[in-house]
Amino acid sequence: MRNKKALKGKVISLLLVTFLMSLLLVGCGSKNQGDQTAPSTSPEVSAEVTSQPEQTADEAFNVTITDSTGTEITLTKKPERIVSLAPSTTEILCALGLEDKMVGRTKYCNYPESITALPEVGGTSNPNVEAIVDLNPDLVVGATHVSEEVIGKLREVGINVAFLNEQENFEGTYSAIEKVGMLTGTDEKAAEVVAEMKQKVADLEIALQGLNLTELPKVYYATGFGESDYGAGGDTFIGEIIHLAGATNIAQEISGWSISKEQIADGDPDIIIVPSGVNMAADMATTDFYKDLRAVKEGKVYEIDGDSISRQGPRVADALVEMAQKIHPELAK
């Protein structure tokens, strides 16, 4: 009997020890599992995450465009020293907030007025190459009149030259603005400028539709007169502006700018528009042939800012609206 009690006590003791050991093992297992799921804070992992340097804006800049000469222009750094060889590109650069990056201009670049403080490098067709090189530009932008010889000489000495002689219409103007934006890292601002211009053109189109015109007035845009006459032909940029302003261009069938007195007389314009600042309106009123034109007799010779309407830049949308208001005075009310 005593032996049975002793045996029973040993069994109970053994079971108790086994139970306690099981609890201890479970506790250790939970601790190990916790160690495995905890986030690692080892020095090796931290060093690996922070070992890759971030790119700066200039290091990330890499853009290529094809200019009007068919040449690919690639820039791997935003330009800091820009020379403009055309009034239109000067106005584009300034509209994109890049006036402080410009170091040179042509003698015809006069807007905005503050730009006239920059050094001149000559005219638009044959600027002084040495003067340009001395300014140490990292980008030269030109349009329309810059000669191939000048472009070639600048490229020979390693200067990036973008020649943007785009189509003579609004689409060409938008393209020039967008390409300058790409080259200078001001894409977003260029998109804003183009969007604003397009909105002005669209608003004018709606306003003209509201006039319910049954017949379009005949318009002649004159840039020179005397022994020879010059006006905007149908294939010129100003020719497109006349059309968009809700008028018929009497020189629509003319290519370029040369027109004869016979063609002017046959066109019999209702309105003549001339660039301001050259006294053309007053001179026409006292000059043979011109003083007998119906538009001159009726006092319908109007002046418009010649720079803004002839330069394919951001101001040309405003020039379009101005011309439309000259032709259709009711639009200005």
From TrEMBL:
GO biological process, one term: cellular response to iron ion
Residue span(s) of domain Fe/B12 periplasmic-binding: 81-331
Domain of life: Bacteria
Pfam families: Peripla_BP_2
Region annotation Disordered: where it falls in the sequence: 32-54
InterPro entries reported for this sequence: ABC_Transporter_SBP, ABC_transptr_periplasmic_BD, Vit_B12_bind_prot
Keyword set, alphabetical order: Signal
CDD domains: YvrC
The family this protein is said to belong to: Belongs to the bacterial solute-binding protein 8 family.
Name of this chain's protein: ABC-type transporter, periplasmic subunit
Species, as recorded: Cellulosilyticum lentocellum (strain ATCC 49066 / DSM 5427 / NCIMB 11756 / RHM5)
